[in-house]
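Record format v2
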Amino acid sequence: MLTDHTGSGGMFALFTHQGEILDAAAKARDKKFERWDVFTPYPIHGMDDAMGLGRSWIPWVTFTAAMVGLCSALALQIGTMTIDWPMNIGGKPFLPWPSFMPITFELTVLIGGLTTVAVMFLAGGLPNLRPKIVHPQITTDKFALYISADDPQFDAVATREFLESLDPLTVEEVRFDR
Amino acid sequence: MATITKQGELTGRSTYIDGEGPLGGPRIQREALTTGGKTYAQVDEDILYHTEHFPTKLWWLAFAISATVAGVFVTSAALLFTTGMGTQGINSPVGWGVDIINFVFWIGIGHAGTLISAILYLFRQTWRTAIARSAEAMTIFAVATAGTFPLIHVGRVWFAYWLIPIPNGRGPLWVNFNSPLAWDVFAISTYGTISIVFWYVGLVPDLAIVRDRAKNKWRKLIYGILSLGWRGSNRHWRHYESTYLMLAGLSTPLVFSVHTIVSFDFATSILPGWHATIFPPYFVIGAIFSGFGMVLTLSIILRKVFHLEDYITVNHIESMTKIVMLTGMLVGFAYSTEFFMAWYSGSEFEGFAFMNRAFGPYWWSYAIMFSCNAFIPQLFWFKKIRRNLYVVFVISLFVNLGMWFERYVIIVTSLHRDFLPGSWGMYTMKPIDWAITLGSFGWFMSMFLLFARALPTISNFEVKMALPPDEGAGKVYKGGGHHAD
């Protein structure tokens, strides 16, 4: 299962500039926290490196699903037109592979695309009707560095000191009661 | 980058900064995408205003007109379903009439949306951010409009599910996968589905903004469900951006495939005027051309009615006019190539088909098509015209008109005089043909207006990404910047 990096609550520092959050994230990465996250109104270029996250594995999902789509399209067409009920249509062969290409392509794209999107949402724990919203202004114009209280290094005093050393707008605590 | 506060200060020209570029040459800097020196919070205020407030009188007026025209569409479709195909003008030899014309027209309109959201994304054209959302919405509504026409054309719509290869009690008798009409079913449904998914993926972070700003309990609930619980975590953004790239990569060949397959409906036949290998590229270019015409029409109205001039600037309009001009030239080239091939092939029937197109009884439709598509957009060679929104708006209407007539010319003039003069005939549109054609515009506009009312018409988070960070945050960052390494 995927790790829940937000946990039952924690502490966050709020910033107003993307440069600040990039610096802050890099410092948190160097502190080697395990359960922490960065919340931003838009994806920031360089943030994956600043957080020490590698490349997303999504392209592998797309490739695998697209291959499944390709094979199922061929199976559908060959299964119906060649195996189940071969028919003479204008003297064409019973396995007219050029005729099969358009639908093979379309189903490759369809299944590849739909699976990629579904896996992307599920990987982020979505859909979630009661999301753990750290701060309501994150989607608008604030950037948050969040450290979960479930992190083994978390310490109410030391973590607050660390967050305040980053010169944020505020440092606040949150709890998510379910 | 200097902040441009007024629309009038935009020139549409890049600045050259000497010595900053690669190998000591100049660095070319485009003008700001957003004017008015907006902060991130202002972006949300401006774009979400119409989602969060009761619609204006202008919106109600536009919606009332569109909904009435959409009523004409629904009524005439109901008449066609209940009374039958005999009410339409189609007959032997012109068995494909207004239904197929409108189908190809509306599918073509959709192509610009996918081009903007996928191909311009892959080419890193950041100006797409301002128009991508509304263009994608346009795609979905255009495909939804287009999809109704084949259903009308099959005559007995209650048997339309026979188009899908499902096990059945007739053998099972499967669909014929050699037929381009079966390919069409898969192409159009894939295109519609992927367009909706692409659009929705882009919407999720913006719906979360509406949810977080909502003070009304119901709005918070509805947009909370629609946004799926998006929180802006970078651990999600990482996969999100990768997904968007994958979708763009999948959609790019999809755009080309859809109109290619539509063109196969014609090109795989043996009819003079249809039986041509040029059809796939010719149809795809025509689709992009007509789609951008429609995007121009809608964007010019949208920016004015919803006060989005700072986001959809005159520079955006100018960029689109350049694409219209280029694709207009390409369709003109395709028309000329068809003529050349008709002569060069030495085929008597092919030669006659094209002489009949240009000088036969339907010469007027050919004249409308050629002048609206190949000649009028050439006015965009002049920068003054590209930046004059009134002229651009009128030209965009001509593009739409011309492209409707292109499909009219291809279908009607080829069918009405094929090989034997004994089987020739004429095609006239009956009242119900006019009603369903004009009604489809109301149907399309009603859906677009509802979208513009209920959802963010511009991608907020992408506009924020494209803003200079200091401008968006409203302060200058003096940090170490060690993240840059």
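DSSP finds 16 helices and two strands in chain B.
Chain B touches chain A through 74 residues (CB under 8 Å).
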